[in-house]
Specification:
51% helix; 3-stranded mixed β-sheet; N-(1-d-carboxylethyl)-l-norvaline Dehydrogenase, domain 2; 3-hydroxyisobutyrate dehydrogenase-like beta-hydroxyacid dehydrogenase
């Protein structure tokens, strides 16, 4: 018999995760601040709860896909955690700080439940086609229990051990590398354009040869075309993530000068009212500075 699952947060990632869990036959309760977003899921068999705590099955599985540390804490403290109780498992898919994961791990442990950090590398279409990658860290039995669930919406499952903040460190490192790759392509394509070479031509050549990885192919097309819609990950969320990178790097005495540069790109883009664009729109900054 499949476990009862509660999913809180039906944003760009929460919605396709819920769809995949329903396809797999899990009993699913959902909650979202904007309740109308849940209608397609209810039509497919999900149960819509009027509050986060109402959605919880004591001793069951809770998956949170919420925007940031503050929202996550506000939603689950204290009623959700108390209701989850003994035997419950909270799988946090959100990109949050390792400090928050460590705090949540202890709070769950005090109430007899378990917390597992499980940030995912995936845009919505990657979840729907199950090609995303997910990182796990927390107690071993929690990691084992979670595997049979996350395997329904992620292809690669990577185990980073018992330390609850470890998976969050990996996610932040990965998002930093994506941001740095976008900046690198923005500068390279702008350099080409200023020298009368088509952005699309250099994109096609480089992403078919030296830089043939999906990150370069997918984000590179957006940068080459200066087309930052549809929005899968909002630009302010990119700033949130890079701020977490810099906060964590400072705490661990790791200089990250490129992260500072990327942060400034995000701040500039927000100042220029580009918040309605995908986070890859940080790339416009290189063209701005080149007078294009």
């Amino acid at each position: 018999m499949k476990e009862n699952i509660t999913l809180l947060g039906l944003g760009n990632l929460g919605m396709p995760i819920a769809e995949k869990l329903l396809e797999a036959g899990f009993p699913l309760k959902v909650w979202n601040r904007t309740m109308s977003k849940a209608e397609p899921l209810v039509n497919s068999g999900a149960v819509l709860a009027m509050s986060p705590e109402e959605a919880i099955t004591p001793g069951g599985i809770l998956i949170t896909v919420l925007a940031d540390d503050r929202v996550l804490k506000n939603v689950i403290f204290p009623d959700v955690l108390k209701r989850l109780g003994s035997g419950g498992l909270h799988i946090s898919v959100s990109t949050i700080s390792p400090e928050t994961s460590r705090e949540l791990y202890l709070q769950h442990k005090n109430l007899g439940s378990q917390y597992l950090a499980a940030p995912i590398f995936a845009r919505p279409e990657a979840i729907r086609t199950k090609v995303g990658n997910i990182c796990l860290s927390g107690d071993e039995d929690a990691r084992i229990r979670a595997r049979g669930i996350v395997a329904h919406f992620a292809k690669g499952i990577f185990d980073f051990g018992d330390e609850p903040g470890a998976a969050n460190i990996v996610k932040l490192a990965g998002n930093f590398m994506i941001g740095a790759s976008i900046e690198m392509m923005a500068e390279a394509f702008t350099f080409a354009e200023k020298n009368d070479i088509s952005r699309q031509a250099i994109y096609e050549m480089l992403t078919q040869t030296l830089f043939s990885a999906p990150i370069f192919q997918n984000y590179g097309k957006m940068v080459a075309d200066h087309n930052y819609k549809p929005v899968a990950f909002q630009l302010p969320l990119g700033l949130k993530d890079i701020n977490l990178v810099l906060k964590t790097s400072e705490a661990s005495s790791v200089p990250m000068p490129m992260a500072d540069l990327i942060r400034n790109r995000f701040v500039s883009a927000i100042a220029k009212e580009r918040t309605n664009l995908d986070w890859s729109a940080l790339a416009i900054g290189a063209s701005d500075e080149a007078g294009l």
